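To: structure subgroup
Subject: Chain for Friday's discussion

All,

I'm putting the inputs and outputs inline so they're searchable in the archive.
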Amino acid sequence: MTRVPRCLLSCCCAVALLLALAPLCPALALQILTPVDNSYLEFNQVTVAVVIDNPAATVLQVAVGTKKYRKELAKSGGVRQVCLFVPLERGQNRLELSVLAGATVLERKTLELYVRSAVLKPYQKVPDRFRRLYFHQPETEAACAACHRMEATVYDITPQKPEDSPCYTCHKNKMERSYKHKPFAAGYCFSCHEVVKGKRKYATRKPDQQSCFVCHSAEGRHWKQQKVHHGPTAVGNCTLCHDPHASDWPALEQIHPTELCINCHHDKKSGAHVIAGFFGKGHPVRGARNPLKEERPFSCAGCHNPHAGKTQNLLNQERENLAKYCQTCHKL
């Protein structure tokens, strides 16, 4: 009779035990469709889309720092595809995705994203390990097509209402901002976004003015006639300062107008660049009443034109007589 080595017998017993217990152990419950780990984007939110293959799962939870976002799962059991909007902070974000059954964690995965800002200098340079996140790729769209319409038609150019746009379901949260760009508010996404063979899907034309001046042609002609052009205007980079969709600021600025200016013009932060008065104080650059446009907050644009002008300092209106210029607001 052949003797079986003790070590081999032990291994066989261990394998047999694992096979016996396999039906009691759930398979991997979580597959992340998007976003891809170590990606960067230029929006402060991301759509997390996952596949959950565990009938016991009841909740998808995404934690970003100390904040947690949860979505209750359909009780159908089996394989479920779930998406969740998650707000992000500028810079590096660590997302912890958990599949829960009540309070029990069935599976947990982490990924890291970076939110770049073209405006704020601390976040302009993306660390080398992050790669640009593009959602509208064939493999991602195929995974989401069961629930979402991914292909636009000619009828989507001017939908009857925003909800009819194929973009609305995933991008409707932008509608919550106080001020909306008119094409976006109407669901006319394809006024700016294009489907062009050989180019990235739903990209926009560059520089931005190629799209913006289709509607804002009068402004474009006026600025072209001026002697001096603000840097972003000169290169046609409108979205450096303006959000093309919606904003909490009246002129669709990316951030508070003054913050936008002093992000590049650091030496003007105190307001002391204006001739000081009798008390040695500079002119305010925020928080004051705007006598020229009561509906807007006071900012650098109260005195300076942010696009183009006749003088190097881009002062609004005529400035041959500075005393008279100041009296536009400061009545004597």
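Points worth raising on Friday:
Residues 319 and 325 are 6 Å apart (CA to CA).
The longest strand covers residues 104-115.

D.
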